[in-house]
Specification:
With 109 residues, the chain is α+β, with helices and mostly antiparallel strands. A hairpin with a 2-residue loop joins strand 3 and strand 4.
């Protein structure tokens, strides 16, 4: 039985971790948007590289939650770090600061 190279290189399991301030962002969302986030989180765990890569941060990706809300996450090894979720412009502004603090705190490359 043959598998494609893409399937062979796909990690068996992804771990999800959160930036220290991520839950503050979630507190600002409506219940409906949190439910959408939970569904999107599962899709990200199935295929983290599925969305558009962001400039300004290596291995950073965005996931639209609604037309105006974006989730930004960072991939390091087999770990998906949730950086920020919120208003479109604000989340893009915040993700670089959080990525920098994450890399300092955990000595990530």
């Amino acid at each position: 039985m043959s598998t494609s190279k893409k399937e062979e290189s796909k990690p068996a399991e992804w771990t999800i971790r959160f930036h220290d301030n991520f839950f503050r962002d979630l507190d600002r969302l409506s219940v409906k948007n949190i439910q959408i986030f939970e569904k999107k989180k599962q899709k990200i765990l199935e295929s983290p590289l599925r969305q558009k890569h962001l400039r300004g941060g290596a291995n950073c990706y965005r996931e639209p939650i609604t037309k105006s809300i974006r989730l930004v996450y960072f991939i390091q090894g087999h770990t998906v770090w949730m950086l920020t979720i919120g208003a479109h412009d604000k989340s893009y502004e915040t993700f670089k600061k959080r990525l920098y603090s994450l890399r300092l705190k955990y000595d990530l490359k």
